[in-house]
Amino acid sequence: MIAIALGVYAFYLTSHRRIGNEALFLFLCPPSIGAMALDNAGILGGIIGWLIIAMGNALLYGGIGFALGMAAKKSK
Question: Residue 29: how many CB atoms within 10 A of its CB?
Answer without folding.
Answer: 24
